[in-house]
Amino acid sequence: MSEQAAVCQSCAMPLVKKEDHGTEKDGSLSSVYCTYCYRNGEFVNPGATLEEIAEHGAAMISQMYDMPLDNARMFMTGQLRTLKRWSGRIVPTCQSCGMPIFSGEEAGTEKDGTENSSYCVHCYQKGEFTEPDLSHEEMIQKGIPIMTRKFGLKPEKAEEMIRTFTSALSRWS
């Protein structure tokens, strides 16, 4: 089974459209890297550091969402540390809220107690969603105050950002 990712595993750009994906040496689309980071089976900037990619991404996030630059830097650094290029593995992401699932303690559970790596413990326990009737819109609205507090976003920008980063999650797509 090939690896799949909802965001570029180098820069965290959402991989929504076919055009967003980079390419492998054989011309096929990369399932884990974007076109800005990866072409013809190689990184566009192979010597780039996490800090350099974070700085570039922070400038974009800051501009797109009116986020203070220091907060955007903190956000991007946190996001990048979970990605394959920087962590050496694809860290599963909760397909409901987007939280990275680093360990079994953070994974949801099935009815028999086994781990479910598709959902986090906050969203999925004992084989069921913790909020089974929660809509995508309600999830977004719950996240707005968290993003405004943590990253200094205006509510409308927090909503836009959450919507962008959660639209490809399997619970909502």
Task: Summarize the SSE layout with pairings.
Elements: E1 21-23, E2 29-34, E3 38-39, E4 42-43, H1 50-65, H2 69-80, H3 84-87, E5 107-109, E6 115-120, E7 124-125, E8 128-129, H4 136-151, H5 155-166
Antiparallel strand pairs: 1-2, 3-4, 5-6, 7-8
What low-confidence regions span 5 or more consecutive residues with pLDDT below 50? none
Taken in chain order, the helices and strands follow as EEEEHHHEEEEHH
Which percent band covers the strand fraction?
A: 15-25%
Return the structural class: alpha+beta
For the secondary structure, the number of strands is 8
Shape label: globular
Q: Strands of the largest sheet, in order across it? A: 1-2
Span between termini: 22 Å
Mean pLDDT: 94
Task: From the alpha carbons, calculate the radius of gyration and give it in angstroms.
Answer: 17 Å
Count of DSSP-assigned helices = 5
Helix content: 25-40%
Describe the largest sheet.
Answer: 2 strands, antiparallel
